[in-house]
Design goal:
single chain; 172 residues; alpha/beta; Rossmann fold; globular
Length: 172
Amino acid sequence: MSGAPLVVLVGPMGVGKSTVGQLLAERLGVGYRDTDDDIVAAQGRSIAEIFVDEGEPAFRALEKDAVRTALTGHAGVLALGGGAILDADTRALLAGQRVVYLSMDVEEAVRRTGLNAARPLLAVNPRKQWRELMEARRHLYEEVAAAVVATDGRTPEEVTQAALDALELKEA
């Protein structure tokens, strides 16, 4: 399948982009793709390993390439890694796309992510680091979003329905 994605999901780590993305794809009758999965498959190692071995700048370069490739080669539902929107070129590529920003508050984020070693940016003090990440990123998520869907206290199915409603998309 080639062309632009039907829906692009952005938001912080742990917000449920993968779960909601798969549900959206199922309900819309299209494929699902996650740029983090693309990077892991291409590199043959986890994102945490890339961060440790090569550092965040090297990972961000891989991420930028993965996002560019997916935005032109996937016509289904696409989920981007939490930091993908940090890159100005990536944000420019998202202009005109159906982007949904899945948001959550800090207490929900800490509950969902905890001290997860697979999340290298939250390794030391997850509550403080998540709050700092969101302060730095929230306006960027909002900048690229056609719709914002809060996930706090909602099931993945409820978030999926809210995204469909927000974008006025009909199920397949």
